[in-house]
Amino acid sequence: PFASEPWGMTAVCGKVDEIGGAVAIRLGQRFVGNHHSIIPRLTGASAVFGRLLARIGGPMTPSSIAVRLGEDVKDAMRARDERRLSAIRMLRAAIRNLEISRSDRKDPKYGQPVTEADIVAIVQKEITQKRETIHFATVGNRTELLEKERAELATMEQYLPAMLSREEIRAAVDVIVAEVGRDFKKVMPLAAQALRGTADGKLVNEVVREATA
User: For 107-125, how does the pLDDT look when each residue is reduced to its tens digit (9 = 90+)?
Assistant: First the structure.
């Protein structure tokens, strides 16, 4: 159905986290550029999910950062690329630590699955820490450390999703508006969660205001 609608924008692919787990949705527009997925995380809005899935003909299974890491660690080991291997292991360890914390009854998110959004946040956090290490190594003139840290940073950055353009954000927001109406207070929380980790928050806010004006 979407293919016949005159949006003239990009294809929007996404993974939606429903109560039963991750469900992928696909909005059948032509895709421009390098974005193969937007990762909507509209947890709790299952009624919206159902209508979207009904309109587009069912789910598809997207790839995952965690799956990529699992494959890439084997490649790095075969290649004996110690710096790449070190960076990948750091990310996998951080993901595993989050999984363990979710099994702790004291954790506010006890029992909740680790989503793609969580993993993107982990990658972003590790990259931030790596950049801080590089900064202090630069200030301290630790040249022997800089090469290693920069190589690990470059590896980690490969696992961040590309940021979406204004047009791609608008395509996703238009879908939400079509489902819940032009109410900023309803659209903004859904859009914020849908595009978390894949789009600039300020830009999402601007686009939602335009779409609901």
Answer: 999 998 888 878 888 998 9
Give the span between the Cα atoms of 184 and 138, in whole angstroms.
45
Distance between CA 166 and CA 148 in Å, rounded? 36
Helix or strand or coil: residue 83?
helix
Q: What burial class does residue 56 get, using C-beta atoms within 10 Å of its C-beta: 0-12 exposed, 13-18 middle, 19+ buried?
A: middle
pTM for the full predicted model: 0.58
Q: How far apart are CA 56 and CA 76, in angstroms?
A: 39
Please enumerate in sequence order all residues whose Cβ is within 8 A of that of 16, keeping only pairs 6 or more positions apart, or say none.
22, 23, 24, 25, 40, 41, 42, 49, 52
Query: Closest Cα to residue 166, out of 2, 9, 5, 24?
Result: 9
Phi then psi dihedrals of residue 163, to 5 deg: -70, 140
Check residue 163 and report its DSSP letter: P
Alpha carbon distance 194, 17 (integer Å) = 10
Give the pLDDT confidence score for residue 57 in this predicted structure.
37
Distant-in-sequence contacts of 110-114, Cβ < 8 A, 24+ apart: 113/17, 113/21, 113/22
Partnered with residue 43 across adjacent β-strands are none
